[in-house]
Every structure is written in structure tokens, then in C-alpha cells.
Design brief:
Elements: E1 7-11, H1 18-27, E2 32-35, H2 51-64, E3 71-74, H3 86-106, E4 110-113, H4 123-140, E5 147-151, H5 164-172, H6 176-179, E6 182-187, H7 188-193, H8 202-216, E7 223-225, E8 227-228, E9 239-240, H9 249-256, E10 265-268, H10 286-300
Parallel strand pairs: 1-2, 1-10, 2-3, 3-4, 4-5, 5-6, 6-7, 7-10
Antiparallel strand pairs: 8-9
Bound molecules: zinc ion (2 copies).
The site of one zinc ion has 5 residues, from α7.
């Protein structure tokens, strides 16, 4: 797959609606985009997306020249599909299914979610519950272009999905016929904060990608490109702009030069210059644009 394109983008601000996020991405020259399909601090387990909103979003994407397959929806932060609390788990599983339903209606390539926390410290049972929530969601939405993608965590507290084995075990919990509609993505800040030193050498980056590929049976379906405010192994989920955190720019070059980074959405979730924009202002964020240019340069320069 040597000729797969580099697909850089960002989680664009959706003030004015998700069509505005698509317009900002298009004007920013992005090939990929991440959005929320509902307010991420709520479960939204009863929220559907209206047909006219779908149409306006698809239209804006087409105008922006962004393939819907290269759009990722980020699920709500409150969902904890790993929780041992039966009532909370039911609600989280229903919310995950609804995220997949909304994302499928929007026609995007994937919906990513944080697996959650084993608050009783029984990690194996927590991982099994995440697998079961995924199974339910995939059965509730039996077909469509949207894949359900686990995001690796920064490893704070009892969160699960930090290691290749944990991500692999969640995917292994799915029946074979659903497996193709599921996958995972990697967040560089979360990797670094959970102790994977991407900065040591190009080989280290390769080794991390290899380990996830081996455990999950496939390479990642998206990357979140975030530098890290927290130190190596700090378990701090605090994103910094590319080259301005503890990871530094060079490691992003190593990552983007790996063939496995090609053809998948590579998305910034980093601080933005103007977090409050007017609803009708489709100017892309200046820091996003600047950092995407930086990443494009890093991806192209290959050390001998
Ligand atoms: Zn995330
Ligand atoms: Zn994060």
C-alpha cells in the first residue's frame, strides 16, 4: 500500500453546526475531519440525527472535497462501557449503539470511543463488558459504512484499553462476523502518557505500531496526533500542540512516515487559536492550519 495518501485533518469547531465544521476543514485544506454527533458531555442515548442535518452535512463535505469515509465521529466522553454498575452499563451500551446509529446515518467512516474504567479494578471483566457493548451496538445497527473504533487511553486510574493486549481482547470478544466492522485507533498523547516512548527512536515507533497490529490483528484505523503536556508514563490526558509538548516534532515524522499512517484519518485534537468563533465564520483555526503544514513537512522528510 505504498501509494495511499496522507489524510490530515482536525477535530474542527462545530459552532454553527457540523456543516460549518466541514466548511472550516475544507477551507483549511484538510482531507480528514473529526466531529461530535451530539453534545459529548451527555449520554444522548435517545438522540437521533435529523435527515435535513444529514443532507446539509453531506453537502458541506462534498463542497469541502472531504470523503465521508475519512470523517470520524468522536463518541461522548461520559460513556463508560466498562463499568461494573449494571444500570450505568445499560445506559452506556445504549448510548454507544446510538452513537453508531447517528454516525451511520451521517455516513462517516468510523465512530471512536473511550472504552471506560474498571472502577472495581477487575480489568478482565471490564474488558469483556466493553466487548459486549460493542457487540450490542453492531447488532443494533446491522449495516452501513461506519466502523466502531476503540481509542487507546492515557491509562489514568482504572481505565481500560491502554495496552495492545487490552485493545486486542476487546476486539476478540466480538463474534467473527462482526469483527470486520470494528477496529481501533491510536492517540499519540495517550500512548506517551501511558508509557510508550515514541521519542526514543524511529524503531520505538515501529515497535509500538507492531505490538498493536499483532494484538488487534490489524493496523490502526485512525490516528489522533496530539503532543503531550504530561511526561512519559504520567497517565495525564493533556494535549499540546505538535512540537510544543514532551513528544516533540521528530516523533510525529517517524509515525507519519510509517506506511500504516497512510490512507487513514490523522487528526489533531490540540489547543486551538480561536475556540470561540461566530456561527457563520468558516475560517479554519490558524493553529490547526499551521500544525497540519508542519506535519505535512515532517511526513515528507525521510531521514536516510
Ligand atoms: Zn478521544
Ligand atoms: Zn486525550
Amino acid at each position: 500500500m505504498p501509494d495511499r495518501p496522507l489524510l490530515l485533518g482536525a477535530h474542527c469547531i462545530d459552532t454553527g453546526g457540523i456543516p460549518m465544521a466541514a466548511r472550516r476543514a475544507g477551507r483549511g485544506g484538510m482531507q480528514a475531519l473529526q466531529i461530535f454527533s451530539a453534545i459529548p458531555k451527555f449520554y444522548n442515548d435517545k438522540v437521533s440525527v435529523k435527515p435535513d442535518r444529514i443532507a446539509r452535512f453531506r453537502e458541506a463535505l462534498a463542497e469541502a472535497g472531504i470523503d465521508a469515509a475519512h470523517v470520524i465521529v468522536h463518541a461522548g466522553y461520559v460513556l463508560n462501557c466498562a463499568t461494573p454498575d449494571a444500570e450505568k452499563w445499560e445506559r452506556a451500551a445504549a448510548a454507544l449503539a446510538k452513537e453508531l446509529e447517528r454516525s451511520t446515518a451521517l455516513g462517516v467512516g468510523g465512530v471512536c470511543f473511550h472504552p471506560g474504567a474498571a472502577t472495581d479494578k477487575d480489568r478482565d471483566s471490564a474488558i469483556a463488558r466493553v466487548g459486549e457493548a460493542m457487540r450490542r451496538a453492531l447488532l443494533a445497527v446491522p449495516e452501513g459504512p461506519t466502523r466502531l473504533l476503540i481509542e487507546n487511553t492515557a491509562g489514568a486510574g482504572t481505565t481500560v484499553g491502554r495496552t495492545p493486549d487490552e485493545v486486542g481482547a476487546m476486539l476478540d470478544a466480538l463474534p467473527a462476523e462482526l469483527r470486520a466492522r470494528a477496529g481501533y485507533g491510536l492517540d499519540t498523547c495517550h500512548l506517551y502518557a501511558s508509557g510508550y516512548d515514541l521519542t526514543a527512536s524511529r524503531d520505538n515507533v515501529t515497535v509500538v505500531l507492531d505490538a498493536f497490529e499483532r494484538a488487534a490483528g490489524a493496523s490502526p484505523s485512525f490516528l489522533h496526533l496530539n503532543d503531550s503536556e504530561g511526561a512519559l508514563g504520567s497517565n495525564k490526558d493533556r494535549h499540546a500542540r505538535i512540537g510544543r509538548g514532551a513528544i516533540g516534532a521528530e516523533a510525529f515524522g517517524w509515525l507519519l512516515q510509517d506506511p500504516r499512517a497512510r490512507g487513514i484519518p490523522c487528526l489533531l485534537e490540540t489547543p486551538q487559536a480561536v475556540p470561540e468563533v461566530a456561527e457563520t465564520d468558516d475560517t479554519p483555526d490558524a493553529w490547526d492550519v499551521e500544525d497540519i503544514a508542519l506535519l505535512r513537512g515532517l511526513a515528507e522528510v525521510r531521514a536516510a
